[in-house]
């Protein structure tokens, strides 16, 4: 199972830099990089709320699930 974070797409749509976005959300640019690069193990709801408020979007606009390759359709 893989959860993909599509922040790059959302930032590009809105013309926001990572620094501007990090300031608006209230987390560090390094933590934004962790999210964008798929290295995050968890996201707090308060952080997800701040992301969605800043981008004026739904959680599904920044997070999506992709099944593992070769996974059974059980």
UniProtKB/TrEMBL annotation:
Pfam families: HTH_26. PROSITE patterns: HTH_CROC1. It comes from the Bacteria. Coiled coil: none annotated. Residues 13-62 form the HTH cro/C1-type domain. PANTHER family: DNA-BINDING PROTEIN, DNA-BINDING PROTEIN-RELATED. This is Putative Xre family transcriptional regulator. It comes from Streptomyces lydicamycinicus.
């Amino acid at each position: 199972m893989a959860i993909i974070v599509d922040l790059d797409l959302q930032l590009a749509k809105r013309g926001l830099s990572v620094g501007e976005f990090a300031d608006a959300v209230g987390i560090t640019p390094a933590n934004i990089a962790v999210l964008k690069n798929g290295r995050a193990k968890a996201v707090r709801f308060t952080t997800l709320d701040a992301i969605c408020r800043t981008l004026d979007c739904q959680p599904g606009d920044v997070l999506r699930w992709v099944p593992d390759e070769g996974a059974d359709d059980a």
